[in-house]
């Protein structure tokens, strides 16, 4: 009976070590390729870089629109921009203008 007792103890310890090793391997693998792991963080950083470029482009576009709106304000009216907008809205052309229709 003493031999069986030692066998059970050794088997229990081996099972404990195998379970612990399995848990370590599982969590290590998840830390590397899981949803919040190293691979995913690299993908998030690449997506952040792409979205930052898009944001910079949109900010530049918005700034150009705001500048054109400021030029049309009553305080500092730009005559060239006003003339351009009036010609577009009314469909008038200057004799020296060339019209290219794209449809």
List keywords for this structure.
76% helix; mainly alpha; 3 helices; 103 residues
Give a quick precis of the structure.
The chain has helices at 2-33, 38-71, 79-90. It is mainly alpha-helical.
N-to-C CA distance: 96 Å
Total of DSSP H or I helical runs spanning 4+ residues: 3
Helix and strand string, N-terminal first? HHH
Residue stretches low in confidence (pLDDT < 50, at least 5 long) are none
Rounded Rg: 36 Å
Task: Describe this protein's structure.
The radius of gyration is 36 Å and the shape is rod-shaped. The termini are far apart. Helices cover 76% and strands 0% of the residues. The model has no long low-confidence stretch (mean pLDDT 84). The chain is mainly α.
Please render the helix and strand layout as text.
Layout: H1 2-33, H2 38-71, H3 79-90
